């Protein structure tokens, strides 16, 4: 079954000429589009299509380099503009072999509907088709949508793309860290190992039988794992950070009351939770108004 082309659309409140400039000028385009690290126009004559090269860094010192060609552009009577592209790469490293697509700029009252649709052929035979369907196509579609939202915020609010991406990736790095911390402390000390210190801490805070204390610790571990999973799936990260700014100091006080001697331990709850509180405060600041791919329409109506 053939995959559907990638489609992304977003309304942008901007002048047509400005939007055209930042999407058609290589030095401006590469600033907001997460899919490209650099774009270079090649010399051309007046009657020739515009050729260009692009580079995408994929990490570990590796990069995919390819070619592109502006097949053409036209403008209708209602001021709708369309720019068509043909692109590809000869590098075997790339999942994309060759593709075609277009950008369209539809004028609406007070805004412009900026949209793209593109599709491509893949390398690596059937393995490449499966990899593309399950992983790469959703990833490149998400990157396109996120880039469109960054572009929208740049033109509407004036915030430079590189600052938006710093805030976006900082927020997600902190989110993955807290997912790991909460899940780890819920699973291993409490659920799997039922560490004696966890049992003793709970028993000193609440008067229960030994079996009740064990069940209580396991229950707390389950809640911690669920809270950890929220860092991956709950979209409002700032609310989670706000909760932690309150929770970590309370957990610190409870741990010290339960075991004052913990203040002299090598990994004291005072210093550990203080570090997490400060990290939560930093994350709370950076996570305000983070770019998101969800602001884009992903299917043609």
From TrEMBL:
Lipid metabolism keyword on record: no
TM helices/strands, residue ranges: 172-193, 213-233, 240-258, 270-290
UniProt entry keywords in alphabetical sequence: Membrane, Transmembrane, Transmembrane helix
Pfam families: DoxX_3
Domain of life: Bacteria
Keyword Transmembrane: yes
Protein name, entry field: DoxX-like family protein
